[in-house]
Every structure is written in C-alpha cells, then in structure tokens.
TrEMBL record:
Protein origin, superkingdom: Bacteria
Naturally occurring in which organism (per UniProt): Marinobacter salexigens
Keyword line: Membrane, Transmembrane, Transmembrane helix
Cited InterPro entries: 7TMR_DISM_rcpt_extracell_dom1, 7TMR_DISM_rcpt_extracell_dom2, Diguanylate_Cyclase, GGDEF_dom
The protein's name in its UniProt record: diguanylate cyclase
Residues passing through the membrane, by range: 193-213, 220-240, 252-273, 285-302, 308-327, 339-358, 370-391
EC number: 2.7.7.65
Amino acid sequence: MYLPIISPSAAPCRLILYIFLLWLVSVAAYAVPAQDVGGKDVRLADFPVGYFIDSSESLTYETAQNKTFEATNSTATLGTGASVTWHRITLDNAGPEAKALFLHLPAAFQVRALEIYEERSQSLVGQARVDLNNASNNPLMYRGTVVYPFSVPAGETTVLFVRSHLYSHQWFAAEIYDDQNSRKALVGGHLDIALLVGMMVALVFYNGLLYFATSKKENILYSLYLISGVVWIALSYGLIAEAFNIYGDAVFILNLSVFTMPIFLVLFMMSIFETREFYITEHRVLSGLLVLLVGGFCYGLFDIEAALIPASSLAALMMLVTFSVSLSMWRKGNPLAKFFLVGHSFFVVFNGFAVLFYKGVIEPNYLNSHGVGIGIVLEAITLAFIISYRIKVLEDIRAQQGELKRQAATDPLTQLYNRRYFMTEGESLIEKARALGEPVSVVTLDIDYFKKVNDTYGHHAGDLVLKGVAVNLQKFSRDRDLIARFGGEEFMVLLPGADHAEAKGCAERIRQGVEKHSVQVGDGVSIRVTVSLGVTQINSAKESLEAAANRADKALYDAKTGGRNRVCCAA
C-alpha cells in the first residue's frame, strides 16, 4: 500500500487519516474472525481460517505471526504455488470454564512436515513439530491424522499457527473437537475409501481370472489400470497411512500411480478398440499422449515433486484427448465406443472437479476432493461391463462360426455328418489308431428297395425312412463311432478300436434294429425297411480310408446280390 509522507506542517486531518490507515493495516493481519468454543459441545469442522504463503519457505514463527493472513476456510486448497503455508486459527472462550480441546489435521498423512504453535496473550505457550519421515512413532500421529491437544482458558483467546510444508499441491484441513467428539472423529474413518478400494480389488481379481481364461491382453491392462487406481486412492485419501502407519518420502513415491493410471488406460483403449488396425489417426493421437505420460513417469522416478506440479494439467490433457478419441470412434461406428464414452464421461466430469480443486480454483467439498476416486470407480465399473460385453460379442461370433462349421459338415436331413467331413475326420482317426496300435473298421450300409419306397409313398415318406435309419445307426453304434450319410440311401460308419469281429457284431445290431423299426408316414400308414451292410477291418499301416471303403462296398454288393437284409464281410 502506498502512503503519503506527512510533513510537520501537514494539516491535522491528514494526520488522522494516516493513523486510520495504519490501524487498517494492523487489523488486516487479524481480519479472520475468531471462533467461540465456550459452548458445552465443541465440534468444529467448518470455520474461517487465515493463511499466508511463505514463498521463501524459511520464515520463523516470530516472523510469520506478524504477516498479513488472508481469509479462507478450514478446508482449503491453494494449488501448486504454496509449498509452505502458515495457517492461523483464533479461538475465543466466552464460557465460564476452561476448555481442553484437540486440533485435528486429517490431511497430515500427505505433508512433508507440520509445525504447530500455540499462542495466548501474544506469548508462545506450546508448540510441536511432526516430521512425516519419522512420524510412525510420534505420539501426535494417529492413523494419518495429527492430533494436537491444547486449551482455551475461560474468558481468553488462544491462537494456533500451523506451518504446513507439502511436496507439491497445498491443501489444508483442520478440525477442532473436545475430548468426546475427538474420539468419535478418530473412530471409523475412511470407510468410504475402503469401500471404493474393495470394489476395485474385486474387479482386479475378476479380470485376472478373465485373463487366464481368455488370454486377452486388455484384461491384464485393465487390471493394471485398476491396481494403479487402488494405489492412488489408498494413498491420496489416507487409507495406506491408516492401515500401515507409514508416511513421508517412503510412500510419496507411490504418487507415480497418477501417471501409471492413464498410461494403462490409454493402452487399454488401444487394445480393446484395436486402433492400430482400424483407427490409424486415433492410434497416432493416443500414441502421442502415451509418450507424454511415459515421459512424466520417467521424470518422476528422478524428481517426483517436480513431476507432480504439471500432473494436473497433464491429467486435463489426457481427459480431453481420450474423450475426443472415443467420441471419434463412436462416430465411426465402433459398437464399444458408446459404452466407453459413458464410463469415461464419469471419469472426465469428476476428475475435472478434482483438477480444479487441486489447482485451488474451486472451493473444496467432498465431491471435489474425492473426485478422482469417484471417477475412477465409476469408470472402472463401466469398463468391466465393456470387457464382459466384448467377451459376449466374441462368444456370439465363435458360436456363429461353430454353427456354420457344423452346417458345412452335417447332412441337413438326417443331421449325421456328410461325406466330406467323414473322409477328412476319418483319416485323422485312422492315423490316431495307427499311432496307438489299435484296430479300426468300417461299415457301409444301404437301404433295400429304397426307390420303391419313394415311388410308392412319395419322397416325404422316403425322407422319414432315411431319418429312421439314421436314428437306428446312432442308437446301435458306440459314442466314439463316426457316422455319416454318404448320399441317397447310403450310410457309412467308422469304428475306431474295433476289430473285424466287433465291427460285424455292431453291423448286425444295426440291421436288426432297422428291421424291427417301423416308420409312420401318415394316414395310419407305417413302413418297414431292411438294410444291407458291408464290413471290413482297415489295414491302418498301409491302407487309406477310401481304399477300405471300396472293399466294404464290395462286401455290401455281395450282401445285396445274396438276398439283401444281411451283413457281409470283406476278405
């Protein structure tokens, strides 16, 4: 502030104005109103606090207490330009009794060092220092919260100065409680964070199992993304401090997860959308973003504090790029992009609040301070749905392909295998029998006087007869036998592991079964047919299936010329 120099001859009114301005300057340093703690129940979680940014990072208490403190709230964020900040809390006791109180600093787990100075009547009556690198056994540290006991005598004022030294982003949270409310505040904390972490850990295990079941790399990338998110949420919201009682530099390095999260998310997008093959432009954009993220991660390995300063800006760029890329793929017709957009919208919106919170642009509240965790969990759930949906799509495609293969290998009328499949699969079975030293035989079958059935009763009746013979072939053959309709009224059975005698017995059972079977063709008309069969054992060491089938056909011809409805064996 510029003040004019007053000469001895100045008018009295100018002297009065000068004194008034000096008074205003002195009052500005204490413009933050005091809180009355004289009531019976003391539970302050939202109250005005003064702050002063120590850009030199070297001011002592004696110097800092005379600085001008600006007004803020007991929960505040100041961004990246306030590594060392002094906070001033003024408490009045208008009650008749002295108050024994506790200052809670619930965000202490993420600072480098804290100093607390207790002042009364402009005299220092108490002080404490907590170095987070040696805080595990500090009596003031309780599950990530610094708890400083102090008192406010009746009719007096106590001023608390808190020097907060953070690594990168400066945020501050303070609460004032009496003994009973202090105990309540320290019990059951971080239940919401534990719930978020538990949900994500469950998703990690689920996708780990999916990876082992499908060997799809997007499952492992998604699991790594979730693990990074779990680490960041547990670290940033104090769950690691509460569970393991470790603080300072030892865990601060885990903030590298702020880079690994988007790295694995981008890799996941590349994999599940197959950008390298189908979306060249989007793939190049994601690759450029990936280079920036990996560069930030590598920089953080050497100087994590400096790397975290632009991290929020890099996060904003990542959200813009990934959202734009997914929108582009959705417009190009990718069926998964619309689901990704829904989940990523949660991530972008909630993380947008968080970025503004970390930069000190918006006022802190639960939604802003927990935006990253909420956004990650909501997106993680949606991405899990995308993976499940993609698996369903792939299974549907496989099922369709399987059905097409089945149709290509199956006779549409009898649902037995067709000639082409029989010859291909039969050669494989003969090769297997040769390797195992097992016998293998073949049976050919032909329906007797089938043309007469068609001429007398029509082709519909002939189809019913063919189906009836197919049913008996399946009924009197073994499960491992290969059965096919070769065409017309001719069928063939390959019997792995069956010698000549066993194949002949199987053929006889089939003959008898068909003979006893009657086919209802409508209007009370039933038809009985007989079959002739030829049997031979295959010389698997030197004979092909086709050659063996030809020998069985000769035996079938002998059965036909010998009177039909009989089994004949090839020599």
